[in-house]
User: Fold Endoplasmic reticulum-Golgi intermediate compartment protein from Muraenolepis orangiensis.
Amino acid sequence: MRRLSKRKTLSLVKELDAFPKVPESYVQTSASGGTVSLLAFSAMAILAVLEFFVYRDTWMKYEYEVDKDYSSKMRINIDITVAMKCQHVGADILDLAETMITSDGLLYEPVIFELSPQQRLWHKTLQVIQNSLGDQHSLQDVLYKTVLKGVPMALPPRVHGHVYVNKVAGNFHITVGKPIHHPRGHAHIVSFISYETYNFSHRIDLLSFGEEVPGVIHPLDGTQKTTKNNNQLFQYFITVVPTKLHTYKVSADTHQFSVTERERVIDHAAGSHGVAGIFVKYDSSSLMVTVREQHMPFWKFLVRLCGIVGGVFSTTGMLHGFVGFCFDVICCRFSLGVNKPRELAQESEQNDDHVVPLLAVEEEAVASG
Assistant:
């Protein structure tokens, strides 16, 4: 009984086979078929390898929403080099919401404005990256994923540190004299500083908002401004966008920003008023961006791989059949064109041989009659 049931099962499975089978006697091997098979398998192997690299690659997805977190503090990371002595400059931040003055967390390091050859190489590399980012924004996605930073060649800190401010518009500035705090405003002590020592040529090694993420290049990193005028004003107008970054290597709450630059000479006689120095005016956007690194699902990779195998098989089969058909047509016409005159000539000769005797017979019959 068991054997009978097994036989019935096997026969049922054979009957359910929907794929047509070609008898072996109908299959004919050829050099062209073997060549096409080798090309097909090679194409499938190459495309499968390329598809595997696509599967391993990732991309960044951007999502936008309204930023509802107004109570938290925003961190500002600063590393700026000024071509003046540390005791002659002062940096602070004025928060427009609460008229708050703060300079806690900022340190002053006495350094030389000129760079060493290694530092100059790093600074030039940073400027090249900035130019590339301006031309092709997708390069930022690569920096997000790699999480690399050239720390060995990074510049030593000057006026550097970080401060926490409210997420509202504010003004960070570096000008002559140390800041002093009083209830009615803020001021800088400039009485004992000579006007000839003013020089606000500067280099921004780092200016960012939020948590510092390795690998992220900010718009003002590597910016260098030089001037020979003692009374020069440099202004940077910044719009900050809160950003949540989630990659396979790091997750952080950082900020992106766009910047507009302006500089002018302070000349009260000509109507150009103001204070010489470096002023960074920032404002926070109401939108928040979430950046996520995504990966192709494994099932999608399998579907694409099956599509490659089936597509190559079908395409090469159709091409091989079409080329064979064209080859057969051309060969048949060529053979007909070569053989047809000979056959016609032979037929005409045979007809001539038959006609001549008939005419001769007719002539003999007339003569005898």
In short: Residues 30-55+297-368 form one domain.
